[in-house]
Amino acid sequence: MAEYGVAKFVLPGETESGDQHLVCCNESGVLIAAIDGIGHGAEAANAAKAAIAILRGGVGEPIISLVAACHEKLRSTRGVVLSLASVDTKHGLMTWLGVGNVQGALVRVDKKNGPQETLLLRGGVVGDHLPFLQAAVLPVAKGDLLVFATDGIRADFVRTLFALENPQRAAERIMKSFSNQSDDALVLALRITGIHP
After folding, report:
1. Quick check: is 197 in a domain?
2. What percent of the residues of the chain are helix, what percent strand, and what percent coil, each to the nearest 5?
3. Between 97 and which of 45, 67, 135, 157 could a Cys-Cys bridge form, CB atoms 3.0 to 4.6 Å apart?
4. Which residues of the chain fall below pLDDT 50?
């Protein structure tokens, strides 16, 4: 259903990244998340991992409900910012939302629906102060490329995306060219390979 690649940068002096990702598939679709624990180091990583533990069981669940569940469970942590997408492979639809500053872009292989979409981000911190959550629903097709990047990556990476790039190469290229080197960074690139009309 999906082919993906990930590139990570850990801030020098830290043992692990506060930026984590999740790609989970079941028969109905794929759940994709990029999560940035507030700050960096072990405490940030623990908050991000706590969010992943909640999301992991949520393939097929409404993503607004998943973010609300994360918010409740993360109140005792530093909190996280995240972007989340759920791809319904049966109907060719993707639902996505972002809280905080994890950039998201969808590049379409077929330009008739428009070449690229950018995720609307809402200010807030999951686990601290949650904005009004509103998810967007987009049509997707086999071959479309979804990219999430945490704030250690400069936002202008979106101008360099093209749908046919190998996901792992795309993630590594974006990391190499757009990392600001002053924060943890993560790039997750995912190609939708299975849409079943």
Report:
1. no
2. 25, 35, 40
3. 135
4. none
